[in-house]
Amino acid sequence: KMKKVKSILFALSLLTCVSLAAQQDPMYTHYMYNMLSVNPAYAGSEKALHITALHRSQWTGFKGAPLTQAVNMHAPLKEQNIGLGLSLLNDRIGPVNFMTANADFAYRMKMSSKATLALGLKAGVNIMQANLMGLALTQSGDAAFEYNIKSKALPNFGFGAWFQGEKLIAGLSVPKLLENDYKTNTITGGTDPGSEKRHYYLITGYTFTISDAIDLKPTSYVKMTKGAPVEADLTTMFVYKKKFFAGAMFRTGDAAGLLIGMNITARIYAGYSYDWSFINRTFTYNYGSHEVILVYKLKTKDSQASFN
After folding, report:
1. Closest Cα to residue 129, out of 190, 57, 62?
2. Is 222 helix (H, G, I), strand (E, B) or coil?
3. Which of 43, 117, 300, 304 is deepest in the core (most CB within 10 A)?
């Protein structure tokens, strides 16, 4: 009997995912290395080609838990104040899958010899799919699960601003301005899948030089959207000899985590993080959240990544 109750609760939670998942974009623990995903003005800010690949397994061991993959690349145009980028996202929650592809454009203006301000535009398409017919139900004949859901390729666009100084960074962005209605843009039927929600992002960071060998880099990542609580990541990273990285993260009302990373070579950075959840309690309902990231950076004599 208890097993049946759990199955019913799980099915209800998946229905909630279908109608609400579009209301919150993914949250990344390694946001400081994945800023192009939410802010197009970041394109070209590293003065050289950067390619980032990220995988996040949230709430491992919890059936239907979110899985996220993100890939982005960006570079400046030589001898111009323009940066171009490409960002791809695949986000799965239970039977629901969101896929996004965006092109990013940034124009950079020099504020001083060590500070720049960039304005950026993001444009792309989003697709939502839900494999409801593949779910194992306790009772057959429920009309909400008789059809899969697949949306059309829905266009969207956004903008952002990015300030980068010698030690200070700050960014404000709205990566999706349009709130596309999935119900009216669905190719196949099923329950009401809801609509996209506009998200606002604020990112800040500062580098403190503790000694010749140690830097301290506190950062914050705030996400706001209508109908959901404001979420903020507060992270502090210690950097040893600009090669070894270690830090801690606190996500308001949700989780805490640890991060480690290393510049394997002058061009390759690898990082890992582990999060404990307060809401879906870790070691009670899941085994924690894992995130890995790999960054390739084509170093030049004047290139210097913000967090490297």
Report:
1. 190
2. strand
3. 43
Q: Kindly give the parts of the chain with pLDDT less than 70.
A: 1-24, 132-147, 187-193, 299-308
Rounded distance between C-alpha atoms, residue 222 and residue 31, angstroms: 11
Give the tens place of pLDDT for each residue, 26-52.
889 999 999 999 999 999 998 889 999
Q: Are 75 and 51 in contact, with CB atoms under 8 Å apart?
A: no
Six token digits for residue 238: 């210690």
Taking alpha carbons only, the member of 83, 62, 65 closest to residue 73 is 83
The token pair at 53 is: 């690949």
Neighbour count for residue 91 (Cβ, 10 Å): 20
Burial call 229-258: b when 16+ CB within 10 Å, e when fewer: eebbbebebebeeeeebebebebeebbebe
Tokens representing residue 64 in the block: 């239907």
Is residue 37 within 8 Å of residue 104, measured between CB atoms? Answer: no
- Which position has the token pair 């890939």? 71
